[in-house]
Structures are given as C-alpha cells and as structure tokens.
Amino acid sequence: MALIKPVGYEPLTTESAINLAIQLKFFPEGSTLSAVEIGDGNLNLVFRISDLSIDKSIIIKQALPYAKVVGESWPLTLHRATIESNALKVFSQFSKDRVPDVYYSDEIFAITVMEDLSDYKILRTGLIEGHSYEEVPKHIGTFIANTLFHTSDFALSPEDKKERVRQFLNPELCKITEDLVFTDPFFDYDTNNFEGELTKDVQAIWKDTLLKLEVARLKKKFLTQSDALIHGDLHTGSIFVTEQDTKVIDPEFAFYGPFGFDLGQFFANLLLNALARPQAEQHLLGQIVETWDVFTNEFKKLWYAHSQEPFTQIEGYVDSVLAEILEDSLGFAGCEIIRRTIGLAHVADLDGIQDDTLRIQVKRQALSLGKRLILQRQKITNLKQITLT
Ligand code: SR1
Ligand code: MG
Predict the structure, then answer these.
(1) Which atom of ligand 1 is nearest to the CA of 70?
(2) Residues with CB under 5 A from ligand 2 (ion)
(3) pTM
(4) Res 30: pLDDT
(5) For residue 237, what pLDDT band results from cuts at 50, 70 and 90?
(6) Structural Rg of the chain based on CA atoms
(7) Most buried of 178, 200, 242, 372 (most Cβ within 10 A)?
(8) Which residues' Cβ are closer than 6 Å to ligand 1?
(9) Which atom of ligand 1 is nearest to the CA of 238?
(10) How far, in Å, CA of 39 to CA of 211, rounded?
C-alpha cells in the first residue's frame, strides 16, 4: 500500500512544534521554548514544549502516516489522532480526573495538544522498577465502569448509541488488534517474534485446535460486539501514575467493542508484571481482584441509578451481564499475555529479564497462564481463583 499524506500534513520537528505552540498561542510571542521528542510508543511522535521561565509545558502528540515501530512499509491512518482526541473528550465527560486535559486538536495535522503529565510515570515502568500504586485499582475500576456504562445501550438511546458507533469506527486500528492480538500468535505468521528456545512451546500453540477454537470465539466478540466505547489498548503503558493519581492516555485504538476487552488487557499486563516479579505476585493479584470489585460495585450503582433500558430492572440481568464481562475479560487477558510473549509487540516486563534461563522459564509460564485463562475462563467465577502456576 502506498503511503498517502494528506495535503498540508507534515511530520513535526522540534523546531516546527515550537512554532506551532506559539502560533496556537499556548505561549506568548518571543518566549524561549525548548522542545523534546519523548515518544517511546510504537506509533506516534510526542513533543514536550516547555517555557522554563514561567514553569509551563504542554504536550503535542502527532500521528505519523505509518507505524513507527515498523517504518514506512506499514502505512497507518492519520484519522487515529482524531479518534484519540474525541475518545479523550468522551472519557473526560464521565471520568474527568482520569484523563489528561485536551487543549486543541487538528484532523489534517493529526495533532492533539494536551496537558503535560511530566510529574507522572508510565505504570509499566513504575512496576518494573518495583513501585506499587495503591490507588490504581480504585481509579481504573471506576474509570472503566463509568466509560463503559455511559457509552452503552444501558445509558444511551438506541439512536445516540448508533451515532457514536459510527463516529468511532476505527477499522485500521482494530485490524492491528485483530491480527496482532487474536490471529497471528496462533499461526505460523511472519509477524511473530519469539526466542528460539520457545519454538516447541509455540508450535504446540499453533497445533492446539481446542485453544484456537476458543480464540476464534473471542476474536468474533471483538469483531462484532459493539457494547460500549472502549479504550482498545489499555495496557500498563497506556496509564500514567503518581502515588496518588492515575491518568489513562493513548486511546487511539478506541472503538465500540466488547465490555470485557479493556479489563482483560489491564489484567493481562498486571499478570505479565507479576510473572516477572514473584515478590509482587500476591500484591498484583490482589490489585486485580480489587479492580474487579470496584468495577462491579460502580457498574451496578450506575445501572440502578441511570439506566434507560427497561430490562435493567429485571432481577438477575445485571449479574448475568457482569458474569459475561468477567468471562470475556479472562479470555481477552489470555490472548494478550500470549501475544506479548510471542507476537510482534512485546513488553519490557518479560523482555527485560536479564538472566536468559529465567527469562525463557517465565515466558513459558506466561504461555501456560495465557492458555489457562482462555480455556478455563468459564470456570473462573472469582478472580481469587487465578494463580500464576
Ligand atoms: C504496530 S502497533 C503494536 C502494538 O502497539 C500498540 O500499543 C498496540 O498494543 C499494538 O498492538
Ligand atoms: Mg499506545
């Protein structure tokens, strides 16, 4: 596919990012500004523009017309910048404190100008460094409950809901997840990336037709089930933290998808960290249980206070919806754990284990945990049942 740049679009440099910040009047003319490109994700440019003399800084995030992690050979829609800024605005309506403030966005330049969170740390980095964040389960459980409930058919009229589904159609970014999370790791495809020592374990996955049947069912849910506006990529690299605060960033994969997906990715990435840090295992497993408890309490509260759907008053309905969310989240978590171990996009939690023997052993453990979550998701009715071995 050819790389298509819309007329007017140019990738920013530190110099043009400074000019843009002044042109948009975020800083007065003549300010002495510095710009640093700090993007460490797979897809975008991220500039921090600062005026140290007045202690002010902003972030300018710009989508590139290709996936940075692979290069220009993988063209990617710039529309994801608009999806991201629109999703941040919707999330902010229902969970204001959990997302950065968006100051400005532009579809043609594919930019979002937003609050600088330089006092925050990426949750994945903090966990790998050995920190723990006590507020995260409460913040993430409440965030997911509010954003899911308020964007679903339980809260919106059928017309409004369908309009939102249309507004958040995100086929190219969904395709990345369909391929990289659900399909590729389960077949002998070139995108996969795993260490030679794991070859036999990976081949066993490719041959496991029972497992593949369950992954197919999960992928079908991802493809077809438009429950609510989901973040779509809620791993621990999409969450900024301090000791007291939590902010969800990067919803460029947002679309109307299944209720359980964000919870599943979040659980999976805590589990990946727990596999790498046995000393934190109990704490992280406890945080998963707490996130689910907060989520269910909040979701039920919203259900009884704000539903517009008459069937929500029927006894047993909310519990059956929550049971399905739990089951799906476990299956999605299993797929995420497997793809982060043998697929294209890895995580530092596992790859950062220096000792070769230990790293391979932990990755094998990850594959077996991922399989277990997918295959046994119907039997796990209480998250306290999850163990790493
Ligand atoms: C080519 S993009 C690879 C991964 O990075 C993003 O953060 C998503 O997780 C995607 O699957
Ligand atoms: Mg991202």
Answers:
(1) 1
(2) 41, 250
(3) 0.96
(4) 86
(5) very high
(6) 21
(7) 372
(8) 42-43, 67, 69, 176-177, 180, 233, 345
(9) 7
(10) 36
